[in-house]
Amino acid sequence: MDKGNDAEPAAAIVEIRAVNKEYALGKQSVIALRNISLMIDKGEFMALAGPSGSGKSTLLNLIGCIDTPTSGSILIQGQDISGKTADELADLRLKTLGFVFQTFNLLPVLSAWENVEYPLLQRRDMEKKTRQERVRHYLNIVGLERYTHHRPNELSGGQRQRVAIARALATHPGIVLADEPTANLDHKTGEGILKLMKALNQEEGTTFIFSTHDAQVMEMADRVIKLADGQIIE
Ligand SMILES: Nc1ncnc2c1ncn2[C@@H]1O[C@H](COP(=O)(O)OP(=O)(O)OP(=O)(O)O)[C@@H](O)[C@H]1O
Q1: Do the beta carbons of residue 148 and residue 112 sit within 8 Å?
Q2: Looking at ligand 1, which residue's alpha carbon is closest to its atom 11?
Q3: pLDDT digit string, tens, across residues 6-24
Q4: What keywords sit in the KW lines (predicted)?
Q5: Strand partners of residue 31
Q6: Residues 6+ apart with CB under 8 A from 126
C-alpha cells in the first residue's frame, strides 16, 4: 500500500519551502530572508518573534501574497502561489487572507461599519442582507456595536484595532496575518486585543500568524518562531 504523502490530506495551511528574499537597494542587495522552511497547520495561533530588521514583516508579506520570494516556494492551502497571475493573487487575498496592521490601516473617511463592509463590497455575489448581517456580527463580536457610525479618529487605538480585526474576519478568511498588532497600543489594551484574537482562533478555527516584540504576547501563542538576521533560529 502506498503510504506516501500524496495519499494524505495536506494538514498545513501554509507551507514555506526554502524561501530566500533579497531586496535591491541601489547597487547593493539586502538579504531579508535566508532559506526559510516552515509548515503552519490549520487552526494554529502562531507568533513570529525577533528583533527589528530580522525579517518578520517580509515573511508576513510573502505569506500574504503582497510580495514574492526571490527563490523557493510558498503554498497556501496546498496551492503554489508562484505561478499565479496578479488577478489570481488578488482573488486569493480577498477570499483566503485577512490582514491586521500595526497602524490599523482603516480608511479615515469611512465609519467603523463602512470599513468592515468595504472588502465585502468586492464580493459581487454576496447579497446586501448577508453583507449587513456579516458586518453587524463581527462588529458585535469585537464589542463595537455602539460605535458603528464612528469614524477612526473618533475611536481609541484599541477600538480602531478591533475594527481592523472585524474587517479582517468579515470575509471569512482561513488565515489572518497580523503585523505587530499590539505595537501601537498600551499594554492592557494590547493584551485585550490578543485575547480577542485567541478567542476567535478557538471559536472560528481561523489560523492566526502574527509578529511581535512583546514577550507577554508571545506567551499566548501556540508556537513561537524566532527569527534573527533573516533566519529561523528557534
Ligand atoms: N523594500 C525594502 N527594500 C530594501 N530592504 C528592505 C525592504 N523591506 C525590508 N528590507 C530589509 O529587509 C530586512 C528585514 O526587514 P523586515 O521589515 O522584514 O524586518 P522586521 O523583523 O519586520 O522588522 P521590524 O520589527 O522593525 O518591523 C531589513 O534589513 C530591512 O532593512
Answers
A1: yes
A2: 32
A3: 545 547 999 999 999 999 9
A4: Antibiotic resistance, ATP-binding, Cell membrane, Membrane, Nucleotide-binding, Transmembrane, Transmembrane helix, Transport
A5: 22
A6: 120
Name residues contacting ligand 1 (CB within 6 A).
23, 25, 30, 32, 50, 52-58
Q: What is the Cα–Cα distance from 87 to 216, expressed in whole angstroms?
A: 39
Integer Cα distance of 176 and 201 in angstroms: 9
With respect to residue 170, please indicate whether it lies within any of the assigned structural domains. Answer: yes
Domain extent, residue 62, equals 44-68+86-232
H-assigned helices in the chain: 56-63, 86-96, 112-121, 128-141, 157-170, 187-204, 215-219
In a domain, 158, yes or no: yes
195-233 pLDDT, tens per residue?
A: 888 988 998 899 999 999 888 888 999 999 999 999 999
Residue 187 lies in a domain: yes
Tell me the CATH number at 222: 3.40.50.300
Parallel/antiparallel/unpaired status of strands 45-49 and 207-212? parallel
CA separation for the pair 33, 71 (Å, rounded): 10
Domain count, the chain: 1
Instruction: Name the region of 206 (left: φ>0; alpha: ψ -120 to 50; beta: rest).
Output: beta
ipTM at complex level = 0.93
Report the b/e string of 145-155 with b at 16+ CB within 10 A.
eebbebbbeeb
183: which 3 cell numbers? 505595537
Report the residue among 21, 31, 56, 231 best suited for mutation to probe ligand 1: largest number of ligand atoms under 8 A from its CB: 56
For residue 55, which of 234, 213, 230 has the smallest C-alpha distance? 230
- Predicted structure pTM score: 0.88
